[in-house]
Design a protein that fits this description.
It is a single chain. With 345 residues, the protein is of the alpha/beta class. The protein contains eleven helices and 13 strands. A five-stranded mixed β-sheet has the order 1-7-6-4-5, sandwiched between helices. Strands 8-13-12-11 form a four-stranded mixed β-sheet, sandwiched between helices. It has a two-stranded antiparallel ribbon with strand order 2-3. Coenzyme A (COA) binds next to α2, α6, α8 and β12.
Length: 345
């Protein structure tokens, strides 16, 4: 066996005996609905202003799914594009993981509905719920199946129809979110280290900061729960903001440490697209240059599990990331949850 080629980073998984088979993102795809909701339209819906929204968040517009367009539809469209780009047939997929907080329905899983829609008849399928951190959680779960040689092809999707759980009379939240989906095909690429590490974390003691209180076993749907508007997303914005900056910074720093990388060696940083001020604060603490950041939240707002997946797709299609580049993904969400991943593209 020939000696591994020298790299400017350490592969932390090598210490676990995984060096034999790596896991790469071999293609990405994304889909956002056609309908654009601008800040000007929101000005007519709630007591807000374009000036407030852009200066406090950086968001200018977001996409809204049609009434007959569901999370599984957005997810399937993103997945089909990723499959086409990788020249992988739906029947080749071994496993589908959908990360979402807005499944089409509580069960069956949206992953099973995607399986049917794209014709991936051989695939196992399940959803994961890690809110905005779901896409990186999904990549890390999918990675296990590839490196362990259990499966050859895993489809990971982050997809949301957040417009279905937004209280359109609450200016604190309705200006922030949007709909969309992003997908990634995971396979082994022998010439790449691929997903070098993913640092994931959670803090359930802060679960109440961001939640949808009703619709589960604790508070099933009732006339009362609807009247009390409990089927909508609720958030303590200020506390969420503080926790996001801290957790994203710590996760990013830990993932870089594991790979023995300096932030300057990262070609492209793709942060969760929730708020430009959160991105700026994390970037400053990491000592990153603004030119390293990929930001598209001005056009899509916060699309939760789809956020970094859509941004990754755009960064790749725009040529901001090419083979061999080092990429840092870093996310934060309800749970609380957070994660950062380093990828040799
Ligand atoms: C929501 C967020 C933008 C609010 O920004 P902020 O600087 O913290 O603003 P505050 O909460 O201090 O609110 C300031 C004022 O603006 C008001 N305000 C809130 N939303 C508004 C809106 N859309 N338009 C106008 N005013 C608004 C508030 O009511 C408050 O008014 P008050 O002082 O009279 O009570 C910010 O906290 C945030 O981005 N938090 C994290 C959200 C997030 O990323 N969540 C998802 C995590 S995955």
């Amino acid at each position: 066996m020939s000696a591994p080629k020298p790299t400017p980073f350490k592969n932390p998984r090598a210490a676990h005996g995984f060096l034999g088979r790596t896991c790469s993102i071999v293609s990405v795809g994304a889909y956002v609905p056609a309908r654009i909701l601008t800040n000007a339209e929101l000005e007519r819906m709630v007591n807000t202003s374009d000036e407030w929204i852009t200066s406090r968040t950086g968001i200018r517009q977001r996409r809204m799914a049609a009434d007959d367009e569901f999370t599984s539809d957005l997810a399937s469209k993103a997945a089909l594009l990723a499959l086409e780009r990788a020249q992988v047939k739906p029947e080749q997929i071994d496993l589908i993981i959908v990360a979402t907080i807005t499944p089409d329905m509580p069960f069956p899983s949206t992953a099973c509905l995607v399986q049917r829609k794209i014709g991936a008849r051989r695939a196992a399928a399940f959803d994961i719920e890690a809110a905005c951190s779901g896409f990186i959680y999904g990549l890390e779960i999918g990675q296990q199946f590839i490196t362990s040689r259990t499966y050859d092809t895993v489809l990971v999707i982050g997809a949301e129809k957040l417009s279905s759980i937004i209280d359109w009379s609450d200016r604190n939240t309705c200006v922030l979110f949007g709909d969309g989906a992003g997908a990634a095909i995971l396979q082994n690429r022998p010439d790449s280290h691929g997903l070098l590490t993913a640092c994931m974390g959670a803090d359930g003691s802060k679960a109440d900061l961001l939640s949808m209180p009703a619709g589960g076993s604790r508070c099933p749907a009732s006339a009362q729960s609807v009247a009390n508007r409990l089927h909508f997303l609720r958030m303590d914005g200020k506390e969420t903001f503080k926790n996001a900056v801290n957790a994203m910074y710590q996760a990013a720093r830990e993932s870089l440490r594991r790979c023995e990388l300096d932030i300057k060696q990262i070609k492209c940083i793709i942060p969760h697209q929730a708020n430009q001020r959160i991105i700026n604060a994390v970037s400053e603490r990491l000592g990153a240059d603004p030119s390293q950041l990929f930001v598209n939240l001005d056009r899509y707002g916060n699309t939760s599990a789809a956020s970094v997946a859509i941004a990754l797709d755009e960064a790749v299609t725009q040529g901001r990331i090419v083979r061999g580049d080092l990429v840092l993904l870093v996310v934060f969400g309800a749970g609380l949850t957070w994660a950062a991943a380093v990828i040799e593209w």
